[in-house]
Amino acid sequence: MIIVIKPGSSETEIQEVINSVVEFEYEPRTIRGVERTVIACVGDERNHHTLESLIVLPQVESVTPIQKKYKLVSRDYQQQDSVLEVGSSCRIGGGNFHVVAGPCSVENEEQTLTTAHAVKEAGATLFRGGAFKPRTSPYDFQGLGKAALEMLRQAQAATGLPIVTEVLSPTDVELVAEYADVLQIGTRNAQNVPLLAAAAASGKTILLKRGLSSLVDEWLLAAEYICVNGNNRVILCERGIRTFEHACRNTLDVSAVAVAKKETHLPVFVDPSHAAGRSDMVIPLARAAVAAGADGLLIEVHPNPATALSDGGQQLKPQQFGELMAQIGPLVEVMGKRLSRNHP
Ligand code: PEP
Ligand code: MN
Questions:
Q1: How far is the CA of 105 from the centre of ligand 1 (A)?
Q2: Which residues contact 136 (CB under 8 A, 6 or more apart)?
Q3: Cα–Cα distances in Å, from 102 out to 119, 130, 294?
Q4: Which positions ≥6 away from 139 have C-beta within 8 Å?
Q5: Per-residue b/e over 261-282, b at no fewer than 16 CB within 10 Å?
Q6: Residues whose beta carbon lies within 6 Å of some atom of ligand 1
Q7: Which of the ligands is closest to the CA of residue 134?
Q8: How many CA atoms lie within 13 A of 223 on its CB side?
């Protein structure tokens, strides 16, 4: 922490701040300039009382943290990329590139199985589908719940693809974890601490979407909550943030992908489907994600998007998904990564 003292403060006032710093068990290093005095406080802010409250002293101009609050997820803690094993064959991160694909919502057996076969055929290595849906409106389709989990299990049995599905509440974690290989925590729950803790306790891999108004720091701190709760199997997923621009449903924050890749050792995925909100923008955004250094993509695919019960406008038809896979293949290679596929 760096504390800047207001110009014109008396020696007694400066000493008062130094005493508080010592009381909070930091070591103060006082730098006296011509006009201003600055106190650098040495000590780990993560396990000491915060000094931020000293801003209330009238002689204090600013209190600025210099240390990042997250630790376990940072590259300072672990330099090399984490590689997460999912299912019997997926290794996520560390130069492997994976595509998770499937419908927004699991709607019925036929739609689920058709999509699972189609995305596998095109090269997806994990299958996604929503059983519990976090809809903005209570009047919209809320998901089929347990019945949908059973359909996901059938899809897994038929294709061998590991299952990614969202969990909305701590009380559902146990149930969803029985069926899923990866628990998705969606944008609306990105900072739901009890859910992060409960999901962590399941021991499953967690795909953590970025909150739609979360700063990168807040996103990484949400991941830190999972790690602190004993589970370092976290995949970060940028899915677009809310900005003033609405040509697309959200704004894909490509910078956040580059920053996250630099700051953390965790795999970083991109979900261009929810960022775009429109199917014609999914492929261009997917290309941008690969170029920014993403380790994988999450893509919504539906056999007939026009009839979809949720997110119809952004879901790709299987043939469009095939086109996406064909286009990203060479880009993944240019980025020095290996595109994991079921069908080379
Ligand atoms: C989803 O993946 O279908 C979903 C609801 O995602 P998000 O939380 O990013 O809106
Ligand atoms: Mn969706």
A1: 10
A2: none
A3: 7, 9, 19
A4: none
A5: bebbbbbbbbbbbbbbbebebb
A6: 104, 130, 134, 186-188, 209, 239, 271, 274
A7: 1
A8: 31
* pTM (two decimals): 0.94
Pairing of strands 268-270, 296-300: parallel
- Among 271, 300, 309, say which to mutate for ligand 1: greatest number of ligand atoms within 8 Å of CB: 271
Q: Positive or negative, the Cα torsion across 196, 164, 277, 305? A: negative
Would you say 223 and 234 are in contact if contact means Cβ atoms under 8 Å apart? yes
**What whole-number distance in Å separates Cα of residue 332 and Cα of residue 95?**
10
d(CA 315, CA 311): 7
At residue 338, what are phi and psi to the nearest 5 degrees?
A: -105, 125
What confidence score (pLDDT) does residue 270 get? Answer: 99
Query: Phi and psi at residue 2, in whole multiples of 5°?
Result: -115, 125
CA atoms within 13 A on the CB side of 197: 3
Nearest to 16 by CA among 56, 47, 50, 43: 56
Q: Is the dihedral of CA 147, 152, 157, 162 positive or negative?
A: negative
pLDDT tens-place values along the chain, 344 residues long: 999 999 999 999 999 999 999 999 999 999 998 888 999 999 988 788 889 999 999 999 999 988 888 999 999 999 999 999 999 889 999 999 999 999 999 999 999 999 999 999 999 999 999 999 999 999 999 999 999 999 999 999 999 999 999 999 999 999 999 999 999 999 999 999 999 999 999 999 999 999 999 999 999 999 999 999 999 999 999 999 999 999 999 999 999 999 999 999 999 999 999 999 999 999 999 999 999 999 999 999 999 999 999 999 999 999 999 999 999 999 999 999 999 986 44
Residue 271 Cα, ligand 1 centroid: separation in angstroms?
Answer: 9
For residue 274, the ligand 1 atom closest to its alpha carbon is 9
Other C-beta atoms within 10 Å of 120: how many?
A: 22
Q: Which residues lie below 8 Å from residue 50, measured CB to CB, with a gap of 6+?
A: none
